[in-house]
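Exercise 7. Given the components listed, write out the predicted structure of the assembled complex. Treat all entries as one system.
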Amino acid sequence: MPELPEVEVLVRHLGPLLHGKRIRAVAVLRPKLVRPATPDEFARAITGRRFASLGRRGKYLVFTLHARRGGPALAMLGHLGMTGRMQVQPARASLPRHAGVVFDLGRFRLVYSDTRYFGRCTLDTRPLAELGPEPLGPEFTIADFARRLARSHQAIKVRLLDQSLVAGVGNIYASEALFRARVSPRLAACRLDARRVGSLWRSIRAVLAEAIAWGSTVPLNWDGAGRGDGVFYYGLAPGTRDYYEERLLVYDRAGQPCPRCRAPIQRIVQAARSTFFCPRCQRGRQ
DNA sequence: CACCATGTTCCTTG
DNA sequence: CCAAGGAACATGGT
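Answer.
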């Protein structure tokens, strides 16, 4: 499900639902998801605690759990991998097919499900230390972005997927940001001039901010039933098809006309991932 | 059967 | 030590 905007919208949705709720029990149906802790250690550490707050860092959900009898508060990380979902549902509803971790909240429960089980739900917060700046925060500056890019000979599209450069940009929004900035995905990072760096910096922020705004207003089903259950890459929430047609400009649009110049959008493979771009609007190293 | 998929991590090679 | 590339992880859709 997730790149930064999808996680952000999910966090805004879940936060109020979880606030103050006590975790009565935890069922780990997929032990792999809570590594490196064992399911037992995981459950023991959080059972009985209440949710204090929910935040986001890059593509990670950061749950803060209240302290237990004078002890320290505890942070729990959620990462949705490619296909992870999180939802709050009535305790008597049927569990989603690939439920991995279930938090019993009394009348409700928080369910983490994931068809491919690439995600994580863990007390190990070390991954946060590896992340680069939040692209929408004040610590993401053009100067620092430029310095980091200047050190790399890797293609700029591949660089953008490195979470230590900027946190939260994934395969979809990397293509979208480069298209918006009119920068070729194949251009070596160190060869972007100052103008392009500035343009890309602004485009990353704009693309992410617009996606958050869109996902916040569009009707989404959070029960995990429909196709629009918090996923808005493909804009499949009911009644939003028209709007969706204009949302992602190049991603998954190989062969379709570029919305700016009508040249066919091209798909290439970089670092084993698809990249979509307009070979005419995004020049340099074709 | 083939190929593709929103992400991260680990291993190998240079 | 670092950079870069590729496979692996597991399941489903087309």
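Discussion: Helices of chain A lie at 4-18, 39-46, 126-129, 142-150, 156-160, 171-181, 194-217, 241-245. Residues 32, 81, 83, 98, 114-118, 152-154, 158, 271-272 of chain A lie near DNA strand C (CB under 10 Å from a C1').
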